[in-house]
């Protein structure tokens, strides 16, 4: 059996397109970025990512959000910020004029729209070289015939935009806007055109040119990562480039002004291409968008091209345009042929579910019909266009005022085009004599206007103004404590409810400056409140009477100071009765010094004028005083004529001192008096007292020596008697200096200060021999020394 050349080509091409779709994951078909100024706040933009994918792939089942979009400064590629977008509309299929061909070649594309609202600070975007944003993803279709290793090639969505603030002035701009793409294929050898241009919301000039599509720039081997440009181009196979993406005579090209693609293809295959859309204002380039897509070239059988005829039903065959009233419809009728597929278009865009020989039309536009054979992937036929115009006045209602629960009125104003008459309706009933462009009403209901266009007689209706009465304002006064009484020396906070603005009054007199929801009062009276809601409707609260609670005088008897904690328990006495005692060491109405411990303790007695009031407090100080102590040596020795201080150490905070006797003292009522020029032995007694009357005393005896006694000889022979040189009375001279010499004048003993180690007849660890040893003794610094001779006798019996 022979198989036709076309059938072989068809089978091979179908397999080449189908198998990669099974093996690979995400197949990018095309798309672009758009940046639209919202128009409310400078720097507020809506970012739109239009992404065309092959249906049924993992990419088409992607989550509701995609990878990050990065914004970069062109001058140095610095990242300004990044953000994510989320899917914003239901996924729609790309509509093919010949569904048979798209089914045969598994051309099932869907469009995914992702959006994000972002706020850019114009002061941060002032670089005159501009900025760009990008989103990167992968993979492309493995069946693409004009690029190298297509299944491993990624996709970069790219958009440039100007500085948002230029020379201190805000610069308003939106990127070009693009209509949905029709599903198309190219017949080998036939002239083909494809609308690929857009419109500019700001009226800027758009210039189109063919460019090489961009690959993905992978950052850290992560897909969809944010990374700065420049971005790599895809690698063309030999013989292909930006201006020969689809081989033909002529090859694929784009009209520089309209963006319309044209080609007469000379080679079968699936081809990817890209168009750069540059935005110019006053001859200066201000932005750029890259659009990426792919088209399939097939071998269409040499059959007769269908030639559909379309007419307006119930109109002359020569009528190619019609005008209908807004809200009405008109039917377009095509030649009926059971072997044809039908696809209607409006303004060049395929209409969803418009695949019958007839089309009911309500909207203005240019309508055409594309026809193809049902069972053959053939050339398509196109009908002549029919233009439908829609007539009818536009009108919009604006309201001012409000209907409160029982009062209020609303003005409804109509704005519409000229040349119309008006009839107002309420609840579907015409309103008598209401034929002007505004009305003043005080009844709830549904209001609209029937507009009759005088030139055509077309009747249209405006939008509906729904007027309802708002609920009555339920004003109410409450106190934060729930009480109607003011405590002594206190205040009461009244709160208003039921509105958003308030006015207060006391005893029927308005209170100026009080318009908040809270009012702090300290005077008894009858308070009233008027509350207003957001519409200005008012409600009056029931009167709120407030009483004044009389004050209470609270006393607490004084507490006598206590010396130490070992004292009887003190009964506390407060007035009036019924209050509460508190403080360290307090139990019930008693104070326990042992429990409290030494210290100054605050004891309180609290009485409330009423249960809801803060108590009135009387305070006393319970002083558990320490018993003073005195650290004073029992006795000391000194020399006659000495002057020195008595250095006692005290505890217990004494502040009264008395010394007896006062002989030789510079003062007898200070903590540490000075003993001056003492002459004889004496005993002193000190008595001290602190603020709490706690008393203690101590005694010191002072022995006075007139001089130091020096013996003539001593016998250091180890018999336990007179083995060292004893100097009676030297303890009274703490600064005495004793020096002993040998017969050659060498010092063999020296003692300075306290005579702690008496002379024992040794020198440098050796016994000194029996003999006479001169000495000097200086008892007091600055006084003459005493000199003498000492006999050292060693008797070893």
Automatic annotation (TrEMBL):
The keyword Signal applies. InterPro entries: Ig-like_dom_sf, Ig-like_fold, T9SS_type_B. Gene3D superfamilies: Immunoglobulins. It holds the Pfam family CHU_C. Keywords: Signal. NCBIfam families: Bac_Flav_CTERM (TIGR04131). This is T9SS type B sorting domain-containing protein. The lineage of its organism: Bacteria, Pseudomonadati, Bacteroidota, Cytophagia, Cytophagales.
């Amino acid at each position: 059996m022979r198989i036709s050349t076309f059938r072989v080509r068809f089978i091979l091409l179908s397999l080449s397109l189908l198998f990669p779709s099974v093996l690979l994951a995400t197949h990018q078909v095309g798309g672009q970025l758009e940046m639209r100024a919202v128009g409310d706040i400078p720097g507020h933009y809506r970012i739109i990512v239009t992404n065309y994918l092959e249906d049924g792939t993992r990419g088409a089942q992607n989550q509701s959000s995609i990878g990050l979009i990065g914004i970069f400064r062109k001058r140095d590629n610095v990242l300004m910020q990044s953000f994510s977008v989320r899917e914003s509309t239901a996924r729609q299929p790309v509509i093919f004029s010949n569904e048979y061909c798209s089914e045969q070649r598994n051309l099932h594309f869907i469009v995914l729209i992702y959006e994000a609202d972002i706020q850019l600070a114009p002061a941060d975007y002032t670089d005159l070289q501009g900025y760009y944003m990008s989103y990167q993803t992968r993979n492309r279709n493995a069946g693409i015939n004009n690029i190298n290793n297509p299944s491993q090639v990624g996709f970069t969505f790219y958009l440039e935009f100007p500085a948002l603030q230029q020379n201190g002035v805000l610069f308003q701009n939106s990127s070009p806007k693009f209509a949905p793409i029709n599903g198309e294929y190219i017949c080998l050898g036939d002239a083909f055109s494809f609308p690929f241009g857009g419109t500019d919301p700001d009226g800027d000039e758009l210039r189109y040119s063919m460019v090489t599509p961009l690959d993905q720039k992978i950052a850290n081997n992560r897909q969809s990562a944010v990374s700065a440009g420049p971005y790599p181009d895809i690698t063309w196979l030999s013989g292909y480039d930006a201006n020969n993406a689809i081989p033909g005579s002529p090859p694929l090209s784009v009209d520089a002004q309209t963006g319309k693609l044209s080609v007469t293809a000379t080679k079968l295959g699936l081809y990817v291409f890209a168009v750069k859309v540059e935005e110019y204002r006053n001859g200066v380039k201000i932005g750029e968008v890259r659009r990426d897509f792919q088209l399939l070239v097939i071998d269409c059988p040499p059959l007769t091209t269908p030639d559909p005829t379309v007419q307006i039903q119930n109109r002359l065959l020569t009528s190619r345009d019609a005008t209908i009233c807004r809200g009405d419809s008109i039917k377009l009728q095509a030649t009926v042929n059971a072997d044809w597929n039908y696809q209607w278009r409006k303004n060049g865009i395929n209409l969803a579910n418009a695949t019958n020989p007839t089309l009911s039309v309500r909207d203005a536009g240019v309508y055409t019909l594309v026809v193809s054979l049902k069972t053959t992937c053939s050339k398509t036929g196109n009908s002549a266009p029919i233009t439908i115009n829609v007539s009818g006045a536009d009108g919009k209602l604006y309201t001012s005022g409000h209907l409160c629960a029982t009062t209020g009125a609303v003005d409804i104003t109509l704005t519409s085009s000229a040349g119309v008459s008006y009839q107002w309706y309420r609840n579907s009933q015409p309103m008598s004599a209401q034929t002007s462009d505004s009305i003043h009403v005080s009844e709830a209901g549904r209001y609209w206007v029937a507009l009759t266009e005088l030139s055509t007689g077309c009747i249209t209706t405006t939008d509906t103004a729904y007027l309802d009465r708002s609920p009555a304002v339920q004003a109410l006064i409450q106190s934060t404590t729930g009480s109607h009484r003011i405590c002594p020396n206190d205040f009461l906070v009244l709160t208003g409810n039921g509105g958003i603005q308030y006015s207060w009054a006391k005893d029927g007199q308005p209170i100026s400056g009080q318009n908040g929801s809270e009012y702090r009062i300290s005077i008894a009276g009858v308070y009233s409140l008027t509350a207003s809601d957001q519409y200005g409707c008012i409600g009056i609260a029931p009167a709120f009477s407030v009483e004044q609670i009389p004050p209470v005088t609270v006393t607490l008897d004084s507490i006598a100071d206590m010396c130490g904690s070992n004292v009887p328990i003190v009964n506390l006495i407060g007035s009036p009765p019924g209050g509460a005692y508190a403080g360290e060491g307090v139990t019930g109405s008693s104070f326990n010094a042992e429990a409290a411990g030494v210290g100054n303790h605050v004891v309180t007695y609290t009485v409330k004028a009423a249960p809801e009031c803060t108590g009135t407090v009387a305070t006393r100080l319970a002083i558990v005083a320490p018993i003073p102590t005195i650290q004073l040596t029992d006795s000391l020795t000194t020399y006659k004529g000495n002057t020195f201080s008595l250095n006692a150490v005290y505890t217990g905070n004494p502040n009264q001192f008395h010394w007896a006797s006062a002989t030789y003292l510079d003062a007898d009522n200070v903590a540490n008096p000075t003993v001056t020029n003492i002459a004889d032995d004496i005993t002193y007694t000190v008595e001290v007292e602190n603020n709490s009357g706690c008393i203690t005393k101590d005694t010191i005896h002072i022995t006075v020596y007139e001089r130091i006694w020096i013996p003539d000889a001593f016998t250091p022979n180890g018999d336990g008697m007179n083995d060292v040189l004893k100097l009676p009375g030297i303890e009274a001279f703490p600064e005495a200096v004793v020096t002993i010499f040998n017969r050659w004048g060498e010092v063999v003993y020296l003692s300075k200060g306290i005579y702690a180690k008496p002379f024992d007849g040794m020198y440098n660890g050796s016994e000194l021999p029996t003999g006479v040893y001169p000495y000097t003794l200086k008892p007091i610094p600055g006084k003459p020394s005493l000199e003498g001779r000492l006999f050292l006798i060693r008797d070893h019996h």
